[in-house]
Amino acid sequence: MLFRSLMITDGQSFWFIKNGKRMKCYSKRAFDSWSLPAILVEPQFIKSIKFTGTLGFRDGSLIKDIVSGKIYLISNGKSRLVSEPDILNMVGRDRIVEVSPQEISIHPEGEVLSG
């Protein structure tokens, strides 16, 4: 392959390709957190690349559980509950993305972030 890593889409799903392997983005919101353009490809092309798992939100993403209202920071691939409002001021309260509980559960739970 010409690229070491890139995002591709078949128009419905989004995939992260790295080192000749693919990971499916769990949701469009997870894909958007990576802030990368996606190249449109034919579905047959995607099937020819080895599948290795699911990709969640990019580290540094602030996500809010739409059901519970809890806010998490994704750090080292883990969801870390934000327990102090001052933390939101430090990392950018305006970047919070509302997500489903299922989208949060794809990340292992990390330590609670407190003051």
Looking at this protein, list some descriptive labels.
115 residues, alpha/beta, four-stranded mixed β-sheet, 4 helices
In short:
The protein has 4 helices and 9 strands; from the N terminus they run βββαβαββββαβα. With 115 residues, the chain is α/β, with parallel strands linked by helices.
Written overview of the protein:
The chain has 115 residues and is of the alpha/beta class. It is 20% helix and 36% strand. It has helices spanning 28-33, 43-47, 85-91, 101-105; strands spanning 5-9, 14-18, 21-25, 38-40, 50-55, 62-65, 71-75, 78-81, 96-99. The strands form two sheets. Strands 4-1-2-3-5 form a five-stranded mixed β-sheet. The mean pLDDT is 92.
Proportion of strand residues = 35-45%
The main pleated sheet reads as: 5 strands, mixed
Number of helices: 4
Q: Distance between the terminal alpha carbons, to the nearest Å?
A: 46 Å
